[in-house]
Every structure is written in structure tokens, then in C-alpha cells.
Amino acid sequence: VVRDAPTPSAKRRLSLRDNTSRSRSLAPGGPIPEGVEGLIGNTPLFKIKSLSDETGCEILAKAEFLNGAGNSPKDRVALSIIQIAEEDGLISPDSGDTIYEGTVGSTGISLAAICRAKGYLAHICMPDDQAEEKYSLLLKLGAVVDKVRPAPIVDPNHFVNRARSLAEAHTNDPEKRGRGIFADQFETDANWMAHFNGTGPEIYEQTTGRLDAFVTGAGTGGTISGVARYLKPRIERLKVVLADPQGSGLYNRIKFGVMFDPKEREGTRRRHQVDTIVEGIGINRVTRNLEAGRQLIDDAVRVTDAQASAMGRWLVEKDGLFVGSSSAVNCVAATKVARQLGPGHTIVTILCDSGTRHLSKFWAKAGDIGGSNEMTLDAVLTA
Ligand code: PMP
């Protein structure tokens, strides 16, 4: 039984939204996409040759970094949140209304780009320990950026709480221009539904339903829940596996079904206190978006920072692929799942963003490939 079934109005939106993230036509001679919104969704699925050759499985990656507004899967989510808010009459295009969000970067970048295109202002609250290039990018996109000290989710200064209270204050402040809304990516159904309507059906069509495992990390949980909810009822044998990075607290909860204790909203380990180089995935609480698909997740795989770094270098060396930290984690986990399943299986994972967004943090630590050809996949997986 899937908990958190959509409410009747969410169901209505589910059908209304059916084509939103699929409007891009990649076929030559097809309609020309309109604006950056037209460049969101319908991303290619491709085979990672080195990992497939080494494992005897097909390891396929959804190139989500090719979404054309903010260059990550968060384009789908940001567009979905904005479209639903417009439909509900909470904001209107070209009004200068403000969209507030708490984000570690990707959602903020997607919101900032789409806000520019549609005549809104983006106000982004972000922890101050993220890669420097993400702040610069947000400022270049004209967003207001609030850097806050990393704090537990129960703290009013946590970046999500800060964004929520600023949105509330905006609404009550006659001096502020237009209206203010809180995008609320961690808790809104618009998030997992964007993947249920876009990412999931695209993977199904691109593989013609022939896949054995879907493997990805969770930042809000929107991707894993939305894709799982679309694919699981259609592919009986499908295993959905969570890729959990160092410092995250989800592994035991998913792997051993340790029940979520509401008294323990943040869990016992606090990711903000753990020094890690992976950004965008790994949480210590069960968000509404993770809860939406939690019971459909079959297994979890742990990935260390060292394994993610080694995989980042491997993908450059063997495939010419320069990916961000969460994509590297996903590839480690997908390869571990391939090894568990054995040759002949098809595994799909997500490449969320490019390494260019992680130069100053993940790649600064991961290092250069250095021209050595001695790397083995076993060494990557056990680094
Ligand atoms: N990768 C990156 C770079 C991200 O920023 C995020 C979201 N914060 C994710 C992966 C995880 O996606 P989701 O929020 O859907 O779990």
C-alpha cells in the first residue's frame, strides 16, 4: 500500500500536468520548443559503456543535466511548483511576485532561471557550506541569495525554515511588492509528481519497460518516490534501490525497515555536522516526498566519499563524462547493484548535474585523473 496517495485536487493536477515536462520535441522537424520551459524534460537515456562492459549489465543513465533551464532534474520540479501555484491563483506571470525557497542549490538555480523567464523574483536561502559556484550562478541569474549557517531542521535558522518564514513575512508586509510564496520542495506533492509525470514515464518508454533496477539518491526524495510510483506498478520485477552517501541517515531506515520515529524528526546523526563532499543528496529525516514512495524502495546501498571521488575520476578517464557528486554516488550504487544482480540485467540511474557545478568542492578533493590507466572498478567500489 502506498501511503500519501494524492488528494483529489492533486489527482486533478496529476492529469493536468501529464504533458508538462514532456513538451520538448527532440525529433528533427518537430515543433520548435518555446523558451527555456520548452527545454525541460525528455532528456536522453544513454548507456555508460565502461560500467556496462565491466559488469556485463546494461547500466543506463538519464542525462538530467541536459534539462535546459537550470541544468538539473530540479527544472522539472521548479516548473511543476510554479505552474501549480499559477493554476491555484497564488502568483501570476510578469507580476514580480516572489518565490522563496530553501535549497542546497539545484532547485534554487532552476527556480531562478524559470522565475526570470516568467517575470518572478527568486529569493533563495542556502546553507553557507555549498560549492561557491552555485552562489555565483544564483546571483548571475538575478536571485536574492541568503546564506545561512548549517543548522538542524528544528532550528528556525535552518535554510528551509528561513525561506518559509520570509515567505510568510512577505505576505503580511504591505511594503513588499507583489505576493510571496514558499516553494517548499521537500514537502510539496508537486515535486514527486513532476517525476511521476515526466522522469518515470520517460524511463519506461526509453527502456520499453525492460529494466531490472532503478537506483538513485534522495535529497528531497522526489525523484526516487515519483519514479518508483510510476514504474513499480508497471514492472513487477523492478527493484528500487536508494543510493545513500556518507553522512546520510537513511540507509538503516530503508535497508532494515527501521521505523521512522516522529520524536526523532532529525534522526540521531546530523548531516550538517559531517564533513562530506557530496552535495544534493543524503538526509536525516523522512520528508513528505520520501514518504510518498518509501514503501516502494526495496534496498539501500551505502557509498563513501572516497568511492564517489574514485567513480568521478573513472567516468572521466573511461567515458569522458564529467559529472557532479550526486551523479558519482548514483553510479557507484548502480554498479554495486549490477554486481549483486549479475550479468544480463538492466539498471537505470540518474546523472543529476555536471562536474562544472562542483569544481571547488567535490572535484577539488577528488583530484585529477593524472593520466594513470591503473584504475580498476573493484578499486573504485571499495575505495
Ligand atoms: N542531485 C543533486 C545535485 C541535487 O541537488 C538533488 C536535490 N537536492 C538531488 C540529486 C536529489 O534529488 P531529489 O531531491 O529528487 O531526491
Automatic annotation (TrEMBL):
Question: Looking at the UniProt record for this protein, which Gene Ontology cellular component terms does it annotate, in alphabetical order?
Answer: mitochondrial outer membrane
Q: What is its main location?
A: mitochondrion
List residues of the Tryptophan synthase beta chain-like PALP domain. Answer: 37-353
Q: Does the keyword Transmembrane helix apply?
A: yes
Which GO molecular function annotation, any one, does this entry have? cysteine synthase activity
State the family named in the UniProt similarity comment for this chain: Belongs to the cysteine synthase/cystathionine beta-synthase family.
Q: Which cofactor does it need?
A: pyridoxal 5'-phosphate
Q: Which CDD domains match?
A: CBS_like
Among SUPFAM superfamilies, the record links this protein to:
Tryptophan synthase beta subunit-like PLP-dependent enzymes
**What subcellular compartments does it reside in?**
Mitochondrion outer membrane
Q: Organism's domain of life?
A: Eukaryota
- E.C. number(s) listed in UniProt: 2.5.1.47
**What's the protein name?**
Cysteine synthase 2
Cite the Pfam families for this sequence.
Answer: PALP
Positions of the region Disordered? Answer: 1-35
Reaction catalysed? O-acetyl-L-serine + hydrogen sulfide = L-cysteine + acetate
Catalytic class of the enzyme: transferase
The signal peptide, as residue positions, is none
Keywords annotated in UniProt:
Membrane, Mitochondrion, Mitochondrion outer membrane, Pyridoxal phosphate, Transferase, Transmembrane, Transmembrane helix
The UniProt entry lists membrane topology as: Single-pass membrane protein
Q: Which GO terms are recorded in the biological process aspect for this UniProt protein?
A: cysteine biosynthetic process from serine
